[in-house]
Every structure is written in structure tokens, then in C-alpha cells.
Amino acid sequence: MGPLPWPRLLLLGCFAPLLPPLHAAEFSPSLDSDFTFTLPAGRKECFYQPMRKEASLELEYQVLDGAGLDVDFHLLSPKGETLVFDERKSDGVHTVETEDGDYMFCFDNTFSTISEKVIFFELILDNMGEDGQDQEDWKKYVTGTDLLDMKLEDILESINSVKARLSKSVQIQTLLRAFEARDRNIQESNFDRVNFWSMVNLGVMVVVSAVQVYMLKSLFEDKRKSRT
């Protein structure tokens, strides 16, 4: 499998067995982050994401490579309650309204004994409080602009609209790249499988041809001996 052409992917190279205390990684409170990592066979990997009250957490994941293209997924609240449980799925999209605390999500490959999985996931955080503070800062400078054709509030609204559309475009492009990577892995796997069975068929044909030639030669030799 070649390197994935994603500019903002973080490759997690080493893993530890998920035994108490849990091995976990914490992400910075960015609005949009996407990652890819390799989950070894028989392992489970968990991550924590701190969230604020009345915010929104959207998580999308895909299994890009590995036998079966499936993984178990768990999403737990700060109180330890299971919010989402996907059993042996290749992809999923989940959105939850959050409260203050750390949300934990886990990818479980313990059911597989030999096949590692390459997993891509994306986090989208909404209403984290930063945009609202920015708008309040902008409003300090709105006083006295009534004579302008376009107020600073209108400019802010236009900028936010463009920002939202650009973020959506980046998100869609990232997901399309993930789909393309998974389809490429499937095609490469099918290509290797076709080549393997083609070589097996070729070997069988060669063996059968050799056996047929030997049997025909033996029949003619028997006939010659009976005549003498």
C-alpha cells in the first residue's frame, strides 16, 4: 500500500495493549481534525476528546485496509455511559450533543488474530465557544458605522458564510480521498488474489499436461512390448 495523499493525517506508529490504565491520546480543541493509524491484530485503541457543554461532536470513521474491512467502535460519555456501539462495521458517522468532560472513543480489533486494520477518522467540533467570542469582539467596533454601505456585521456574516462553505468543501474532499484509498486497497487485494489463482491454474494445467503425455507414452510403450 502506497503512502496516503492526505496533507493533515497523523500516523500513530506504536500501540500498547488496552489494559488499565488506558493508553490514550488527547487532541487539541480544533474544529476539524482528521487522522489515520494502523491498529494491529488483537489490539484495542482508545482516544479522549475534551468537550464543552451544549457543544456538538461529530465523528466519522472508515476502515481503509485489512481483511474484512471491519472494526468494533465504542463512544462513551464522560460518565462512562455507552453512547454508540458499532459491531464489526467498515464505516460510520455519529453526532452527539455534549456536556463538560472528556469523551472516549475506541476502535477494537481484538476479534481479529492475524489481520491489522488501517483506520481513518475525522472529528468535527461545533459550538466550542471560540466563534461566539470572536463575534462579541467584532461587535465592539460596530458602533458608528451606520453610514457605511456595508456594516461590519454584514462583513462578519459574509466571512462566516465563506468559512463554513470552505470547511465543508475540505471535509468532503477529505472523505472522498478516504473512499478512494479504501477502494484502491480493495482493488490491489483483488489484483493479488487474481494473480495468485492464475498462477495456481497455470501450474495445475502444466502438471495435467505432463501427466497426460506420460500416460500416452506409457500406453504406446505397452503396445510395442505386447507385439514383440
From TrEMBL:
Topology in membrane: Single-pass type I membrane protein
Alphabetical UniProt keywords: Endoplasmic reticulum, Membrane, Signal, Transmembrane, Transmembrane helix
PROSITE patterns xref list: GOLD
Species annotation: Podargus strigoides (Tawny frogmouth)
Family: Belongs to the EMP24/GP25L family.
Localization, UniProt: Endoplasmic reticulum membrane; Endoplasmic reticulum-Golgi intermediate compartment membrane; Golgi apparatus, cis-Golgi network membrane; Membrane
Major location (coarse): endoplasmic reticulum
Gene: Tmed5
Entry-linked InterPro entries: Emp24-like, GOLD_dom, GOLD_dom_sf
GO cellular component, one term: endoplasmic reticulum-Golgi intermediate compartment membrane
Name of the protein in question: TMED5 protein
Domain GOLD: start-end pairs: 44-125
Transmembrane domains' residue ranges: 196-216
A Pfam family recorded for this sequence: EMP24_GP25L
SUPFAM superfamilies: Supernatant protein factor (SPF), C-terminal domain
Keyword hit for Transmembrane: yes
Leader sequence residues: 1-24
